[in-house]
Amino acid sequence: MLHAMSFDDPAPVRPGWFRRHLAWFIGGAVALVVLAVGAAVVLPRVLTNQTKADLYDGRLVDADYWTQEPQILSAGLGFEGTIGTAVEDEANTLDAGGAWDTSLVCAEEPTDAQRSNVVPSSTLDMTVLAVAGAELEKVDGLPVVFSWPVRTNTIDPTQFLFTLNTGEQVGVDSVTMTPNFELNERNTVVMFSDLGNRASASEPDARFPVRLDIVPASDGRELMLAGPQGDVPATGLSWTGDGSPYDVGPTLVGAKLNRVGDAAAGEGGVPSLTGGTLPNDEFALYGSEGQYRLRMLTSGGFSPDSIRGVLPTDFETFFRLHATGADGSDVVLDRVGQEYDVAGGTLRIVGLSELGKPEGDGIVYDDCYTEDRDNYIDVIISGPEAAARSITGLEIPALEGGYAAFYNPGGPGGTPTPGVRYTAPGPASLTPVVIALDDPMRVSRD
To answer: What whole-number distance in Å separates Cα of residue 179 and Cα of residue 186?
Structure first.
């Protein structure tokens, strides 16, 4: 249970839990106090530990924006009931309807945290902002993806108002900036609240969000987004949808090509959260081998099954690139290390980054590989600039294309429990790539 009146520094989180679950939408102790005396009054934010002070400082360094005008790119329900369990052992995992995987093959014996996709209540004392009285026990996770990065020092849970398919309007108990906490990210705010159930959208008892409206907080403060000409309020932005994650899983909402440059600016930013997965940038994994970074933005966490992480070597398992050939034809790039002739020269896919640490020094690419599971994955590419400008699309062929699919944190794992409904695999998609070589489409804020 998360008590909104607690302002003490939390107990340390177990390293084993960080290795497995930090980037699956964890959160922590409360930063807001609401006093009900007639109308609600919100006291000034009190950040109870250094982690929250770093998360909610409003800073951005070379953070990507994805459209010229601010938008909500996605806000569908992520998964139901697996946030805030007693512990992450088998019994509590199954009781929450989570996935418990007995099939992991790892260099060392997997821990309970590595076998489970639930998040125990004892770990929810690091990064969450919550309203008074919030009780995070077996609640849902829902990522809201903005096309512009968020000024994290302006976030309040009461700024998010959902309308469900039943017509009910629902506020939010708590939010967190994890797992998208790095200074060059921060497009996604994750809701922890009661927002739906596991019914298919076609079933009569289905309950899931179909609309999100951004409103002023209960004390009047506005959520601010960072754009190329300055900060703008998100108030008035809305999103509509009609789907359940138990029918269709996560997908891409953006893809953008930038130069690699001389350094990976904006990596990290919250020291207490970086030990398990960073550095994971293109330089850490591939040195000077790549010239371009194709960054994708996703509607939710991407995993092969909700337990295992995506590996830097997994491009051929999940993705294909499309480019224009010298004769105007569509060229499909589907192999790492192969030279492809396209308009302007040859391109070569180097591999994936923005996942976890490079292999070696105790890091093994196996079923227990620790990756950040945020809403970003990078494809690193080499070749001349004229060839890079020929890239047109990033494809996820998914199951129907003969590839593996992506699941969000509510997926089945490798050994699903019979009779339990898990979130569905993501669909096939082909996303246009924004060529951001002349204008990098990034912002920085102190």
So the answer is: 9
Gap between the Cα atoms of 390 and 396, Å rounded: 19
Q: Based on the number of CB atoms within 10 Å of its own CB, is 279 exposed (0-12), middle (13-18) or buried (19 or more)? A: middle
User: What pLDDT does residue 45 have?
Assistant: 62
> Per-residue confidence at 404, pLDDT binned at 50, 70, 90?
very high
pLDDT at residue 36 is higher than 50? no
Beta-sheet strands, E only, within 165-298: 169-170, 174-176, 188-193, 209-214, 224-227, 230-233, 238-240, 252-259, 292-298
Q: In terms of Cα–Cα distance, which of 209, 215, 216, 214 is closest to 240?
A: 209
Instruction: Please state the pTM of the whole predicted model.
Output: 0.91
Give the other-Cβ count within 10 Å of 401's Cβ: 12
Query: Measured in whole angstroms, how far is the alpha carbon of residue 9 from the centre of its chain?
Result: 26
How far apart, in Å, do the first and last CA atoms of the chain sit?
A: 34
At 241-287, the pLDDT tens digits run 999 999 999 999 999 999 999 999 999 999 999 889 999 999 999 99
Give the residue from 101, 169, 175, 92 showing the smallest Cα distance to 138: 92
